[in-house]
Amino acid sequence: MPETIVKLQDVAVFQNDNLVLKDVNLEVKKGEFVYVIGKTGSGKSSFMKTLYADIPLKQGDASVADFDLKQLQEKDIPFLRRKLGIVFQDFKLLPDRNVNNNLRFVLKATGWTDDSKMDSKIEEVLTKVGMKTKGFKFPHELSGGEQQRIAIARALLNDPELILADEPTGNLDPQTSVEVMKVLQDINQNGRTIVMATHDYALILKYPHKTLKCDDSKMFEVIQKAM
Predict the structure, then answer these.
(1) Residues 10 and 72 in one domain
(2) 98 domain residue, yes or no
(3) Does the pLDDT value for residue 225 go beyond 80?
(4) Contact yes or no for 90/105 (Cβ under 8 A)
(5) Which pLDDT tens digit goes with each residue over 72-86?
(6) CATH number of the domain that residue 210 is part of
(7) What order of strands is seen across the sheet that includes strand 193-197?
(8) Which letter, b or e, does each residue of 132-163 get, where b requires 16 or more Cβ atoms within 10 Å of its Cβ?
(9) Where residue 121 falls among pLDDT bands split at 50, 70, 90?
């Protein structure tokens, strides 16, 4: 049996003091790819932020990568996030340094010290996303799709158990979205678990996976034909 990476029982998700999702029950197994869909304001991003402890869990029980979110202390949040790879819609690359140094910054921040090990890790993740030759480029010299590939490479640096992708194609044109999606598919097929919030239904139809919908304060699984 594949191990469980995410488990939520009777969870309520809040945005500030507003309840956006209630009675969320969910289990994500190792190696799964799960979409989270729903209209703007339906709670997708708040749900994702709850998983990486940007929004504290106030109600229900949840574990993510063996961390109990209910018991999670603030000092332990960085340790949870080291087990996660987080990909945002707006890339969040540091504009004042090149790709290699963007990635090196993350490695140093998470405790890496050996330069040669850092170099080989950076090369490994850039190769995985098809960006091996772009390490000396600055973010402004890259297209949106290339920047998102770098963001995915950054998410892979610490061999995460789970990748949380929050609207990773939201700022990209349809063709580039497909290219980024292919990268995520490859990563998933190599055994990584991915939970991806999206409103891009064309991608969901092209790459079908388990799909959870946020609607009317509820989260439920939808069968593709019903979407």
Answers:
(1) yes
(2) yes
(3) no
(4) no
(5) 999 999 899 989 999
(6) 3.40.50.300
(7) 84-87, 162-166, 193-197, 33-37, 210-215, 218-222
(8) eebbebebeebebbbbbbbbbbbbbbbebbbb
(9) very high
Residues 105 and 48 in one domain: no
34 and 8 housed in the same domain: yes
- Run of H or E including 13: strand 4-15
- Same domain for 107 and 63, yes or no, is no
Instruction: Give me the domain span that covers residue 150.
Output: 90-159
- 184 domain-assigned: no
- Dig out the tokens for 106 from the structure: 């993350």
Q: What is the pLDDT of residues 164-193, one digit of tens each?
A: 999 999 889 999 999 999 999 999 999 999
> How many distinct structural domains can be found in the chain?
2
* 8 A C-beta contact, residue 191 and residue 2: no
- Of 70, 30, 41, nearest to 215 by C-alpha is 41
User: Looking up tokens 């790879």, which residue turns up?
Assistant: 85
Question: What pLDDT digit, counting tens, does each position of 87-102 carry?
Answer: 988 889 999 999 999 9
For residue 77 the two structure tokens come to 């949040």
